[in-house]
Each structure stands twice: as structure tokens, then as C-alpha cells.
Write a structure and sequence with these properties.
By secondary structure, this protein is mostly helical. It has a domain at 36-119. Helix content is 52%, strand content 0%. The chain has two helices and no strands. The termini are far apart.
């Protein structure tokens, strides 16, 4: 093991000069492409889907007049049921809003009564109360089951 004294005047000193600083600038150029190709592809895709749906739905067997009439009757019944359900929903909503209004009115009435009770003058009831007379102190006390225990 060797010992090196850092304060030794005979010790050689090495001076290291820092390397020169080099900065580098990078420029990024963004080139936007046109979206026309995507629009054309989207329109063509939509046209293809419409064509496929037209082909699939046009191959159905022709319906007879009875089947068409039955379908129209079923559609009319469904529409009537939907209108009836909508009317029932509106009636239920109106009833619920009436109940809410009644509850709000009852709460307002209770608040008004409470405010009137707080604002009213207190009532003082005066009455005469007989003063109890003390028991005689001369003699022996007699305890019976009907006398108050005190």
C-alpha cells in the first residue's frame, strides 16, 4: 500500500483543458399530405356497402297482398301501442310533478308555521299554588304503607 500526500509540494500537477463545446441544431420539416385519397376511399367504401345491401334486400321473395296487409296492420298496432305508452309516460310524469308540487307546498306550510311559532310572543300562565304547611315536629313519626316516604 502506498500513501500519497495531496499537500506534497514535490508532487506533479496535471492540468486538463476542457474540450470545446459544440452545439448542433436539428430542423424538422413536416410535410402534410393531402387527404383526398382517404376521402375517395371512404366514398367508394360507402358505395360498395350500399350496393351489397341493395343486392341482399332485392333478392327476397315477392310478398303477397295478404302478407303486405298483415304487415301494415302489425305496424299500425305497434305505432298505436307506442303512442299509448308515450301518453302513459306523460301522464305518469305529470302525476309525479303534481306530487312534487304538493310535497313542496306542505314543506313551505310547515316552514311558515315554524316561523310563526318562533315569532309569536311567549304565553305566561299564572296561577296560585297553595304553600304546603310543614308537618308538626313534636312527637314520634308514624309510618304506614299509605304515607309518602320522604
Amino acid at each position: 500500500m502506498t500513501y500519497v500526500d495531496p499537500n506534497d509540494p514535490n508532487r506533479t500537477t496535471v492540468v486538463v483543458e476542457p474540450a470545446p463545446v459544440v452545439t448542433e441544431t436539428t430542423e424538422t420539416v413536416v410535410v402534410r399530405e393531402s387527404n383526398v385519397g382517404w376521402w375517395i376511399a371512404g366514398i367508394l367504401g360507402g358505395l360498395v356497402i350500399i350496393a351489397v345491401m341493395f343486392i341482399l334486400f332485392s333478392r327476397q321473395a315477392p310478398e303477397t297482398d295478404d302478407q303486405i296487409l298483415a304487415a301494415e296492420v302489425a305496424a299500425a298496432e305497434a305505432e298505436a301501442q307506442a303512442l299509448q305508452a308515450a301518453a302513459a309516460g306523460q301522464i305518469a310524469g305529470a302525476q309525479a310533478s303534481v306530487e312534487v308540487a304538493r310535497a313542496n307546498a306542505a314543506r313551505a306550510e310547515a316552514d311558515a308555521r315554524a316561523a310563526a311559532a318562533r315569532a309569536a310572543e311567549p304565553v305566561v300562565i299564572e296561577r296560585e299554588v297553595p304553600v304546603p304547611t310543614p308537618a308538626p315536629t313534636g312527637g314520634a313519626a308514624v309510618v304506614t304503607p299509605t304515607t309518602p316516604q320522604g
